[in-house]
Amino acid sequence: MAISHIQEHVDLIAKHEQEFLAQRTRMERLGDEVASFVGSFAFVIGHVAVFATWIVWNNTGGAHHFDPPPFSLLSTIVGLEAILLASFILMRQGRLSRRTDERDHLMLQILLLTEKEVTAVLAMERKIAGQLGLEKAANTAEVRELSQHTSIEDVAQTIKESISSEEAGDWSAPKPESPEDPFAELF
User: Fold this and answer.
1) Which residues contact 157 (CB under 8 A, 6 or more apart)?
2) Whole-angstrom Cα distance, residue 27 to residue 153?
3) Rg (CA), the chain
4) Residue 32 and residue 36: Cα distance in Å, rounded?
5) Taking the model in full, what pTM does it have?
6) What number of other Cβ atoms are within 10 A of residue 134's Cβ?
7) DSSP 150
8) Is residue 28 within a helix (H) or strand (E), and if so which, with residue range?
9) Do the Cβ atoms of 92 and 32 come closer than 8 Å?
10) Positive or negative torsion for Cα 119, 124, 127, 132
11) Residues near 131 by Cβ (< 8 Å), separated by ≥ 6?
């Protein structure tokens, strides 16, 4: 694959990400900024400094103790801050989860299209191999199976059953065998 093709794909992905970020509302942008700051080292250092100053100030003699131990006011402020920060983080995670779902749906569509294309190519290659006198290679069980249409419903049902078996602790369900090389017998 040429570099220009790679750059084309990178540019397309970057464009989609920029569009996603540009579609955020003002409140979503604010939430993202807050969540980003909360996840920074500066936030941690700032809190350690504020808490240390608060505790030292309210424990030293000669200073006006506005929140004597056990620091009820500090506990209340920290609790309220935790509620707000958790809300900002959960809102951001929800939005990012929706974006991940969009990507997953796009990936599924691409994979389904790829499966159809590969199946068609295999069918054509089997015909070409037959015309070239390579029937043995073109008609191995695995090549014949792979050149047939794959039922997405059947695959989804098999996955669902496999997951259900594993969750129920049924390890006796047959595991898929590793495919053999369809061309091994030719060489």
Assistant:
1) none
2) 40
3) 30
4) 6
5) 0.61
6) 14
7) P
8) helix 26-38
9) yes
10) negative
11) none
Query: What DSSP string describes 32-98?
Result: HHHHHHHTSHHHHHHHHHHHHHHHHHTTSTTS--SS-TTTHHHHHHHHHHHHHHHHHHHHHHHHHHH
| Rounded distance between C-alpha atoms, residue 72 and residue 126, angstroms | 78
CA distances from 22 to 15, 16, 100, 107, 110 (A): 10, 10, 16, 22, 25
C-alpha distances in Å from residue 98, one per residue of 15, 94, 102, 105, 108: 18, 6, 6, 11, 15
Answer yes or no: is pLDDT of 170 > 70. Answer: no
Task: Say how far apart CA 1 and CA 155 lie, in whole Å.
Answer: 31
Alpha carbon distance 70, 118 (integer Å): 69
- Model pLDDT for residues 19-66, shown as the tens digit of each residue: 888 988 999 899 889 989 998 999 999 999 999 999 999 998 887 889
The residue with tokens 């008609």 is 139
Residue 121's nearest CA partner among 147, 86, 139, 160 is: 147
Cβ(58)–Cβ(67) below 8 Å: yes
Q: Which residue has the tokens 């900024």?
A: 33
pLDDT of residue 186: 47
